[in-house]
Amino acid sequence: AVLHEVLRFCNIVPLGIFRATSQDAVVNGYTIPKGTMVITNLYSVHFDEKYWSDPAVFSPERFLDSSGNFVRREAFLPFSLGRRHCVGEQLARMEMFLFFTT
């Protein structure tokens, strides 16, 4: 839970990788033409009050349920998501684990 909160609170990369739309798309009523560059703002997701209560406070407990079990959060995207998420995610997680436990 602590590692997840560190990754949420201290963004490795505040913006996702640039992508280009492969076809026209409509998102929330806005038309995005084919070939438009799109950037995911990971910082805004990790600090959005819609998904996180009191997002400006460091609180690993937000990743635990009432029994103390780890809970995955859909708005947790430190390595982006989808087919093209960060290829170094597993290595980064292992390195962070080793750093904090040794």
From TrEMBL:
Its cofactor is heme. Pfam families: p450. One of its GO terms (molecular function) is heme binding. Keywords: Heme, Iron, Metal-binding, Monooxygenase, Oxidoreductase. The keyword Metal-binding applies. It comes from the Eukaryota. GO terms for biological process: organic acid metabolic process; xenobiotic metabolic process. InterPro entries: Cyt_P450, Cyt_P450_CS, Cyt_P450_E_grp-I, Cyt_P450_sf, Cytochrome_P450_fam2. One of its GO terms (cellular component) is cytoplasm. Belongs to the cytochrome P450 family. This is Cytochrome P450, family 2, subfamily R, polypeptide 1. It comes from Nothobranchius korthausae. The gene is CYP2R1.
